[in-house]
């Protein structure tokens, strides 16, 4: 599944089906709450919640210039979402690469993980770190960034 909007759209579709069924059963309040929940899940698993992705080569060039880490991620990844949410506003200071949109990014992740596309993979000073603690990533942000 290489389309970043597939999972979010499935959440919305499932939510709409469940909501329609609940409305037909006379539970419109429950239907509205569940539909909102499914939409929130869709947003959380979409590219919208992440900072704008750039290509792997551009991210590595920028990282070499400013010392900020590069985060390789993909939509629908719970660990990527966890990192993004725990980093809060600090996430904007990182260079994000969506491996489903950038073949060079996917290749870089496979090279760092013995052929697996394990994300999030954080590249810092030329060294790959697989699924690091978000607090560790925050510590390694350069103060000037």
Automatic annotation (TrEMBL):
Pfam families found in the cross-reference section: Glutaredoxin
Gene3D superfamilies to which the protein is assigned, alphabetical: Glutaredoxin
Keyword rRNA-binding belongs to the record: no
Segments traversing the membrane: 7-24, 30-50
Residues of the Glutaredoxin domain: 70-127
Domain of life: Bacteria
Keywords: Membrane, Transmembrane, Transmembrane helix
Protein name: Glutaredoxin domain-containing protein
């Amino acid at each position: 599944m290489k389309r970043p909007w597939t999972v979010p759209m499935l959440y919305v579709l499932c939510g709409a089906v469940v909501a329609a069924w609940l409305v037909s059963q006379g539970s419109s309040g429950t239907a509205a709450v569940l539909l909102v929940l499914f939409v929130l899940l869709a947003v959380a698993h979409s590219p919208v919640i992440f900072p704008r992705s750039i290509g792997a080569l551009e991210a590595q060039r920028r990282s070499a210039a400013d010392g900020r880490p590069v985060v390789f991620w993909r939509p629908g990844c719970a660990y990527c979402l966890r990192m993004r949410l725990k980093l809060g506003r600090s996430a904007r200071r990182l260079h994000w690469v969506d491996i489903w949109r950038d073949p060079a990014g996917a290749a870089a992740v496979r090279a760092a993980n013995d052929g697996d596309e394990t994300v999030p993979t954080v590249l810092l000073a030329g060294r790959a770190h697989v699924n690091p603690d978000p607090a560790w990533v925050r510590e390694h942000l350069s103060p000037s960034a």
